[in-house]
Amino acid sequence: MKLSMNVTSTFHGNVVNDIEMAKAAGFTGIELQNPKLDRYLATGLPAESVVPMLDSIEVSAIGALQESDLETFRAEAERIAKLGALYGAPTMQMCTGPVDVQTVKDFKAGKIAAGDPRFTGVLGLPEKDQVEKTAERVALAADIANDHGLGLFLEPLGWAPINRLAQAQQIMDIIKRDNVGIVVDFWHFWVAGDTPEDVAKLDPKIIHAVHVCDGVPVPVGEIPDQSVSRNVWTGGGSIPLQEWVDAVKSTGYDGWWCSEIFHDKSAEFGFLQVAKTLRSNMEILIA
User: Does pTM surpass 0.85?
Assistant: First the structure.
């Protein structure tokens, strides 16, 4: 059982205490993410200074690369992939966009006028074009990741135009990159309408990570907003976690299971208490 702590588990922490808490809580892996990593590096601390902290714990993945204008996207992919290689991460996370849920809400409401500086990506395009244009970005990111010895896993965000497992599979079929896979994120899959039965049909080779998380239903017609729907303790929401875990296990997957949570109340508890409890919950679910 390979258990990794996503840094949302210690929501208000920093790189140093996130790694400390992951070790103390008994995790054998940690999923490093911006903005925490970016914040650490922005102080002028060298990227290499993180390496000694990772003694006795593995970096299960690094992220998250977000869709943006082409040159920014290319530069970010290079930067994150280099960090991933430095920290020994096997794979890099890429989220479909726009990552900003408010941009998606405003676009739907007709509130984005010409000249708005926000990245809108493939919003408003026919689905075929959405898939094909996203595939171009995924292929670019995959090649950059491969250049640094990393895989790439796609995370279709629940509020983005590319939000379903079937779309992610289409993209992988189009680009034909051996280092590309997906993360099975329970919440994103659930709000997009995917099911444990869909997950059970997956080839385990394309599952690069599993995000164990919970949520409550999104009202019909509303854009899924994780600040609302995911604002719940893991196990206290409406996602049938055991069904999702069992579906992943039925594929033969033997990789990293990662805690991920966006719960305001538990974010105000002690870091170690939250991290230990999330690890214990995952152990019980996955056993």
Answer: yes
